[in-house]
Amino acid sequence: xxxxxxxxxxxxxxxxxxxxxxxxxxxxxxxxKLNAHSPVTRIYVxxxxxxxxxxxxxxxxVVDRCEEADIIFTKKISALPxxxxxxxxxxxxxxxxxxxKDRTIGAFxxxxxxxxxxxxxxxxxxxxxxxxxxxxxxxx
Length: 140
Fold this sequence. Notes:
Elements: H1 2-34, E1 42-45, H2 51-54, E2 61-62, E3 71-74, E4 88-91, H3 94-99, E5 106-111, E6 114-119, H4 121-126
Parallel strand pairs: 1-2, 1-3, 3-4, 4-5
Antiparallel strand pairs: 5-6
């Protein structure tokens, strides 16, 4: 019985870290593609991703204040100060994306155990952002 419990514990730790690593890689990829004109992409990660994801970032600079960021990843837009609402905002919840579609450029969330990405076509057009062709299938 102890061996089974130990195997389950080790498996959950290994699987958990690979999920966090995948989240970090997807966030980095989205952020760097959206900010391709800049040599350094600064992101602010708020409520919803946690420090365990941040430890896997390699190609972006994580900032402590949303005012310093190029792109913000958050679960709740309402948690952001007014001074950050003019930034590129990506939400990490489908419900938040639907409620605040006019303020977000997209959403990155998990559904049925897999990552989902949506880009807000209207907002991206308003901001004159050119997305790479590889993102076209995620446009809504």
